[in-house]
Amino acid sequence: MDDSGGPRPLALALAADVPPLVRVRRWAADALADLTDEELGDCMLVVTELVANAYDHGCVPRSVRLHRSDDPCCVHIEVDDGSVVEPTLGRSRLGPQRGRGLVIVDNLSKDWGTIRHEDGKTVWAQVPCGAPSLRSVPV
């Protein structure tokens, strides 16, 4: 249980060098297997974009967490990284052909934002869903 009395989020520590997107997507897909195809697709895109951004723009350590609330149903996705630089919607320091990831997150999420920490930040998004509860998936 977390401090609010709800179930603890599922967490996955991420490697320092290469983004393990296939591993993250499999882990998230297993945890969210009872969602509809559309809901799962939305969650997978958001998870992928947030993790990719943590590798492109953030510093180590990195981790990803999933938590589902049931009333109303929503998948809360959090990705931590070691950079204090806030993400900017539609802009990337990596060039003009980049910067669409947060636009995707913004379009698929009912809300998203950042929480600054002394040693980095958490970028989070809430994706609406309609299924009951998150399954425990081994890491």
Automatic annotation (TrEMBL):
Q: Which domain of life is it from?
A: Bacteria
Keyword Heme found: no
One Pfam family, short name? HATPase_c_2
Q: Output the Gene Ontology terms for molecular function.
A: ATP binding
Q: Where is the Histidine kinase/HSP90-like ATPase domain?
A: 16-125
Q: Which SUPFAM superfamilies match?
A: ATPase domain of HSP90 chaperone/DNA topoisomerase II/histidine kinase
Alphabetized, the UniProt keywords read: ATP-binding, Kinase, Nucleotide-binding, Serine/threonine-protein kinase, Transferase
Supply the Gene3D superfamilies for this chain.
Histidine kinase-like ATPase, C-terminal domain (3.30.565.10)
Q: Mind telling me which InterPro entries this protein's record contains? A: Anti-sigma-factor_SerPK (IPR050267), HATPase_C_sf (IPR036890), HATPase_dom (IPR003594)
UniProt-listed CDD domains: HATPase_RsbW-like
PANTHER family noted in UniProt = ANTI-SIGMA-F FACTOR RSBW (PTHR35526:SF3), ANTI-SIGMA-F FACTOR RSBW-RELATED (PTHR35526)
Q: What is this protein called?
A: ATP-binding protein
Source species of the chain: Saccharothrix xinjiangensis
> Lineage from the top down?
Bacteria, Bacillati, Actinomycetota, Actinomycetes, Pseudonocardiales
